[in-house]
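Key result, reporting period 2: structure in, sequence out.
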């Protein structure tokens, strides 16, 4: 079973993404701030995809991306920015994210987007 790490400070966003992932048979771990990421990654055996919000108290998604990519076991895991700030898609691409999903997530399109991500096909949908 694929496993996703969700990093988002908004509980409602976590709940929506969790529901969508569960419908696709993907288990998940959620953390609500960047400070919890390293601890979560230490405790998770396998991560197939990271969904990373860009705005947090005490940091941002760009800083968290650097932390995730610096851990050798997770360097090749796709990190997908998901945010309401769709105007930041070019900045996200330059920063080294592996994809982009605009919020709110589109439940009709999510299944196909997730399949492409898990198959190594970049998704850049604002």
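The corresponding designed sequence is given below.
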């Amino acid at each position: 079973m694929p496993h996703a790490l969700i990093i988002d400070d908004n509980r409602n966003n976590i709940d929506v993404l969790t529901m969508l992932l569960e419908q696709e048979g993907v288990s998940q771990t959620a953390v609500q701030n960047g400070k919890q990421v390293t601890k979560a990654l230490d405790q998770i055996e396998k991560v197939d995809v990271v969904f990373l919000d860009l705005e947090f108290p005490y940091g941002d998604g760009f800083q968290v991306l650097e932390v995730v990519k610096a851990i050798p076991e997770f360097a090749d895991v796709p990190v997908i920015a998901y945010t309401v700030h769709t105007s930041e898609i070019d900045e996200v691409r330059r920063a080294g994210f592996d994809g982009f999903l605009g919020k709110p997530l589109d439940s009709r399109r999510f299944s196909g987007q997730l399949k492409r991500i898990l198959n190594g096909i970049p998704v850049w949908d604002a």
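Residues 33 and 57 are 7 Å apart (CA to CA). Residues 3-125 form a domain with the Rossmann fold fold (CATH 3.40.50.2300). This case is discussed further under Risks and Mitigation.
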